[in-house]
Write a structure and sequence with these properties.
With 142 residues, the protein is α+β, with helices and mostly antiparallel strands. It has one domain. The chain is built from 2 helices and 11 strands, in the order αβαββββββββββ. The strands form 2 sheets. The protein has a 9-stranded antiparallel sheet with strand order 1-11-8-7-6-5-4-3-2. A two-stranded antiparallel sheet has the order 9-10. The two termini are 30 Å apart.
């Protein structure tokens, strides 16, 4: 099952690269295995390590991702949506405890970020009162 997920994600990488440069693409919907798993071993990230990731990030779909701390817990929030408590799965990767999002953030020496965010977009009601079901979305850091 994990291999199927890895293959489906890896097969999306060329599309993600073109999606990042295409002006009219806002989000990429994911098909196949649409799940997030907690890591088998948690990366123990200190507050000092997390400090460099804290702040707001613009995403390719026009939304923004905010990372912050409350006490010793780390959190992520996408625009006005609910906050998600996150844990580090690697030195630059995070997973929400509620399994609603995961991300990889690569920080460059010049202070810019790259990476990707895989998250569950909640159900919404459109302007014409149509219910849009929840769906998995990938957004990249431009």
């Amino acid at each position: 099952m994990k291999q199927l997920f890895a293959i489906s994600v890896l097969s999306m990488l060329p599309f993600l690269a073109s999606a990042q440069t295409a002006a009219d693409v806002e989000t990429v919907n994911i098909s196949g295995d649409q799940s997030i798993h907690l890591p088998s071993q948690i990366y123990r990230m200190s507050s000092d390590e997390f400090y460099k990731f804290k702040g707001a990030y613009s995403l390719s779909n026009g939304m923004s991702l905010s990372l912050f701390e409350r006490g010793r817990a780390m959190y992520a929030r996408i625009d006005g949506q609910d906050q998600h408590q996150i844990i580090a799965s690697a030195a630059n990767s995070f997973v929400a405890k509620d399994l609603q999002l995961k991300m990889r953030i690569d920080l460059n020496d010049n202070g810019e970020a790259s990476g990707e965010l895989f998250y569950l977009l909640p159900s919404q009601v459109s302007a014409d009162n149509q219910v849009v079901k929840q769906r998995w979305v990938v957004a990249v850091f431009p």
